[in-house]
Every structure is written in structure tokens, then in C-alpha cells.
Prior knowledge:
The structure is a single chain. By secondary structure, this protein is of the alpha/beta class. The chain has helices at about 5-10, 30-35, 90-95, 130-140, 160-175, and strands spanning about 20, 40-45, 60, 65, 75, 85-90, 100, 105, 115, 115-120, 125, 145-150, 155. The longest helix is centred in the last third of the chain and has 17 residues, at about 160-175.
Amino acid sequence: MLDQKTITELKERGGIRAIAISHPHFYSSMVEWAEHFDAQIFLHAKDRQWVMRESPRIQFWEGTTLSLWDGLTLISCGGHFEGGTVLHWPAGGNDKGALLTGDIITVVQDRRYVSFMRSYPNLIPLGSAGIKRILETIEPFSFDEIYGGWWSANVLSDAKASVARSAERYLRAIASAGSYA
């Protein structure tokens, strides 16, 4: 939703410099937001096919990382879309670093854990190669917190260990899934 109240609130807080979206499920009104706030949109090139409305404000980037300003870095780690992206914010987490993950890395009800899905609507788990890719791409980055895609879906301490612990548990579960058939 982009209404006048929202526009006014955001302008009072300094506006929007750029929009970086984790994956196509959230593309919807990005062009309208970018036009209202004179902002750039950063999308990974692997998800270009999902853009339904072209705009000169959209900047497609390639590779594993894109350095922005103030140490911010976009990290393409895949997941349920090839260009799935998270944002590393080194000043977040009380200067211990934070990841903004959307649902590429999903914070679950037990905030000590996260999860990884190929398809949320169909409850199809992400395979081991996808999980290993996520782990490899975030490994170089320090972070103590994760801010997930929904209100209060956050890991507020020891987040990097939480991802590692969760991935180990998840990989073990999908490897043994055949033993229950």
C-alpha cells in the first residue's frame, strides 16, 4: 500500500534512497514506490524474468555480492528463487552485524532456529545444495541478528550460530526423510 499517510511518514523520516527486494514475491508496487521517492531498485539479474513492469529505476546486478554504501552489502544466496537476496548491515545488531533476510532464511517460531523452503505455499523443502549455497554465501559476513520478513520474526542474538545449527538439523532431517517411507 502506498497512500498519502505512508508517503508523509516516510518523507518525515528521511525518505527512501533505494529499494532492494529479496525475491519476486515482493516486487508488486516497487516501481510506484521508487518513483514517489526518487529511489533506485536493486534486483538480482537471475530474477529478471519475473519483472512484469520495466523501469529505468531498476538496476539488475550479477554475481554473489553488491556493495552499496555505509558498508551495506546485498548477498545473492538463492533459496526459493535463483536470485534470492539478503542484505548484510554491518552496523546492525549493536555493531555486531545483522542480516535482513525476508524469507530466504526464515525465522521460525522458536527464535533459536531458522528454516529454508523451496516453496512455502506447497510446503516443499529446499534441497541440500540450496542450503549449502546459502551457508557458503553468508559465511564471510559477521552478524549477530537476523531480521526476518514479518513483524517480530527476528533472531536477536547469536544469529550466525543459529543459521549453522538450523542448517545442520535441516540437512540431517531431509537426508533421513526416506527412512520414514
